[in-house]
UniProtKB/TrEMBL annotation, chains A, B, C, D:
Entry annotated with the keyword Amino-acid biosynthesis: no
Pfam family for this entry, one: DUF3237
Presence of keyword Signal: yes
Residues making up the signal peptide according to the UniProt record: 1-20
PANTHER family per UniProt: UPF0311 PROTEIN BLR7842 (PTHR37315:SF1)
UniProt keyword annotations, A-Z: Signal
The protein's name in its UniProt record: UPF0311 protein E5222_08330
Superkingdom per UniProt: Bacteria
Species, as recorded: Alteraurantiacibacter aquimixticola
Length: 174, 174, 174, 174
């Protein structure tokens, strides 16, 4: 394995004496990866196709019909192909796996598989945030960094929009 | 699809007039998901098995031989089974896919598939952070939240350790 | 694990004396799973989108634009969504992963992920058969057996057809 | 897409006049892919670890502790690593996903992911055959054909064996 030594005191937490642990915890705090915005996207969706009960649970298929995305380093359109292949699970959450393509304004076509969960409000009635783990496959070159990082997505809706859509915002862990 | 309305102004950025965009950007800034520590783990590894060149690139197999993890809400051991199935890619990075199991101190067995990349230093010789997208499959109950969120992992090494290992730290996007 | 005892002498081949091995080999011969036709499909395809070189190799995306399938126990249409996400590999073969949906004439929507390889002719110039491992996810009920078996697909072309297509024939291992 | 023209009359079935259909059906019959034996393996298994109910259903983990395989073109050992990650599904079947490694007697290490189902007897009490879709990742060279074909696996047990095991027999579609 490539030995890329990354300065980290994290390991010390596990086996160090108390004072060392304290300083290790401080250093972890400093080294928390930060999230930076990659893009905000509006993904338009078509009428859901009900698959119904399968051997793994209830499924539906939500076609992706287009959209757009914009961020500090990339912008373009969502191609009108792909879908979200949803599964209602035993923990009360709906698993989403959205598989589709972005085309940047300079012509790169990038696959995104965005998996995560939509969960009901917690016991106190508070909404639970919807977080995803987007995985990209870009061509080499300008956007290859999309294939190298760890990313977090959020799922939201634009209250002002009239057509069916989701707002997917993607962040990169620096 | 379940309509879980999550307060977000993100979508406005795409289509709003200038002043609205400004305020939307502010709101996004406020709504950035934060990362909170789930655990720090030490994953012990055995001697790599060289697979060699495959149809997809050069591969090696790194056995996972045990370890431990500790965090604010969970702690326990890494089971001595599983491996990191690495692939050297055309972008100069090594893709890691580590598939193994955690056993908590109260007996839950949790699968983790931790995928990410180890990349060489950038053009200026600066190390590039190694970030992963861990995906968990826990039993229902106390740890089911591990199956619902978006997570980021980091890869490091403990300079003080004598045996082969990696330090994997996992964060949850709140 | 469920102990579904299936009569098989196969294991004896590994550890039995010579005469027993002979009879075991005979029994294996008798127990070879046979392939039975599930359906023949014509899958229409759109113009390929060139992705270009990625970290895993050269990729292209071939949209699936519709089609039909017919077999002894099922018939219907190929939905105009989905694609074949191809990868040129280091063994000279092109890996295909076609992900799309069938809709039967009685309304069931069934996901198929059909993975396999297209390889160049062998050293003697003879064509090499293209074989795939289709995996189905059907709703429960009439077609649930599609989610339970082992399947083999073949890839061909209809010389008489004028529009771009592939002929995918699917067999089930009895 | 590479245009590897494979002689097939299959497509004609869909759109040809009656007499042509008849002859096409005959030709399909002749072109049925045949299954040829790749190997018979005995895969030794350890005590199952109960995971319990998850968001996707009840799971258990069956460690793979070693074994051997033998066939006309390859033989060797099953490495003592890997597992079968089982899921009890809503169709009454248990989904198996066994992920492990073979080492041939000439030193190649080959990954196998063997997915399939174990289903209860049918309504008449007859056992249902257990069929899988093994997918291999071999190094380039002598065994690279394992990464190019379509394969079918069967699952059995050796009544004469005293230790926990499964007999996995693998066939290739010619």
């Amino acid at each position: 394995m490539q030995r890329i030594i990354i300065a980290t005191a994290a390991a010390l937490v596990l086996a160090a004496p108390a004072s060392a642990q304290e300083s290790a915890r401080e250093r972890i705090a400093e080294e928390y990866p930060e999230l930076e915005l990659v893009y905000v996207s509006r993904v338009n969706i078509g009428a859901p196709l009900t698959i119904g009960e399968t051997a793994r649970g209830n499924r539906r298929l939500i076609p992706i019909t287009g959209g757009s995305f914009e961020g500090p380093e990339m912008r373009g359109e969502v191609l009108p192909m792909g879908w979200d292949w949803q599964l209602d699970r035993g923990d009360g959450c709906t698993q989403i796996i959205a598989d589709y393509f972005l085309r940047t304004d300079d012509g790169a076509v990038i696959n995104i598989v965005n998996a995560g969960t939509l969960c009901p409000p917690d016991a106190d009635g508070n909404p639970r945030p919807a977080r995803t783990s987007p995985v990209f496959e870009p061509p080499l070159g300008k956007y290859e960094w999309l294939g190298q990082g760890g990313f977090i997505g959020t799922i939201g809706f634009d209250p002002a929009a009239s057509e069916p859509h989701v707002v997917i915002t993607v962040y990169r862990a620096k």
